[in-house]
Every structure is written in structure tokens, then in C-alpha cells.
Design brief:
The longest helix has 21 residues. The chain is of the alpha/beta class and about 300 residues long. The radius of gyration is 20 Å and the shape is elongated. Helix 5 packs across helix 6. It has twelve helices and twelve strands. Helices cover about 35% and strands about 15% of the residues. The two termini are about 25 Å apart. Strands 8-7-6-9-10-11-12 form a seven-stranded parallel sheet. It has two domains: about 120 residues, 3-Layer(aba) Sandwich (Rossmann fold), CATH 3.40.50; about 160 residues, Rossmann fold (3-Layer(aba) Sandwich).
Amino acid sequence: MKVLVATQKPFAAAAVAGIRQIVEEAGYELALLEKYADQADLVAAVADADALIVRSDKVTAEVVAAAPKLKIVVRAGAGFDNLDLPACTAKGIVAMNTPGQNANAVAELAIALMIFMARTQFTPATGSEIQGKTLGIQAFGNVGRLVGAKAAALGMKVKALDPFLTPDQIRAGGAEPVTTLDELYAGSDYVSLHIPATPQTVGSIGYDLLSKMPKGATLVNTARKEVIDEAGLAKALEERPDLKYVADVAPDNLAALQEKFGLRVFATPKKMGAQTAEANVNAGLAAARQIVSFFKDGCTKFQLNK
């Protein structure tokens, strides 16, 4: 049984060592494809793989078609829009993610980005404090709950909206539940996005919601760039010189936004929410354990394409 770890952005050495130990102790072979230059390299490498571990690498229909032995693919991380789930399902391949393993890393970055923008990107200009401000969290899952807890510890008021949770569940997580997006945006000095990119969410955050935010508000996106309506974002920033946007996922029009709106817009050069040593190791080891558990016990706990 061959487990392939395919990562253009490799795991930390400690993570690779841990993955190897888990896989080989289970009696399986581990193969590595790291820092590959072209998608064709991944297509070639999966030819004899029974299991595949990736990070943000794209498991496309072409990859799936080139992997006749593949039975399971695990995305080491929470987001899974890089996996072609219909293609996996059509070939009987189980697709999983590792929810929660990167959550603290992303939550800490979200808080850091709020402070960074509140202090005008650490320039000498007068900034503001986040204590006493209201934070609205869109999607109150693993990351959202941690963001809320950290924000509350810093003296922020926390509201949350999640259609998959009851108001009591949101309260139990430490936030005040709201029932509509309009209410969340209109009542929050900061809104932190933690929604996946799905057909329902792509392009869903734009002018109408942003224009409802209070004076001096900031939108924080550590989720996916695809959920932002970039034209609507630009229009809102143009009409509202008090609004700010900060992202761990640079919009396609970042250069134009920064040229026009200066310190009111910032994005990290590359998605870095999960880029901590701890998250790197946690997600990699979780992926390896899930594969072993799948082969030995038939466990499909984190299957995405049920």
C-alpha cells in the first residue's frame, strides 16, 4: 500500500518525519513529491498511489483519472475547494479534510490582522484600539469559535452567524447569535469571514453588505478570495473612505485596490493562515492517521463526498 505526500509547499521536516512514522508503522510505503514545478508532475506521481495527502495542491479530475489505484485523498487542512469532489466520487475515492488542525493558527492571524489594520499597518499615523469594538463572525466553526474567544479576551463584543448552528449553540460558544447577514454587518465594527468557497458563497460578500457596515469598519478575510465580489468591494471602498479590507487571500485586483486606497487595504503575499510549525505538524499527522484508520478500520469520519 503506497501513501503519496504531494506538496508544492512542503510540510515541515518534523511533520514529514511524523507522517513517515505513522505510515511505516502501519506497514505501508511512503512516497514524497515536494516542490514540484508543474501539475503534470502530480499527474505522473499518482499512477501507483493508493492514498494521497495534499495541502493546497489541486486534485483535479485529471489527477483522479491518472490514479487507478487511489482509494483515499486527504487534504491536510480545513478548506477543500482544491479537491474535485465529483471526480473523486465518480471513481469511488474517499475525500477527507482534517478540520480543526489549523484552526488556532488561522484564528491568531485573524486577530493579528485586525490589530494591524486598527494601527494603520504599523505606520506612525494615529490608529485605534480593538477593545470595546464589536466583532461579527460569519461561520462559527472551529476557527470562528477560537477567533471569538480571543477577541472576547481582548475586550471585544462578539456576535456570530452560522446557519448550521442553533442560537443556543452559538451562545454556548461565547457569542451573541444574529439571524441575518444584514444584521451581522450593520452591527459589527469588524467582520471576520470563515466561510468556504461553495456555489452558494462565491461572490456573496460585496457592495450591499459592506455598505451596511458602521463608520470605520474593517472586513477581515482569512477564508477564500472567491467569496468576495471584488467589483463590489472596490465600489464600497470608493464610496466609503472609512472602510478597510484585510485578507490572507489576495484579491485579483489587489494592486489596483492598494494603489487607489493605500493603507485601507492589505493582503498577505501568500496564503499563510496555516503557516505555523504547530499547524503544519498537526494537519500532516492527522492526515496520516486518518488514512491508516481508513485502511485498517474503514473509518470515514471526515469524509467530504458522502
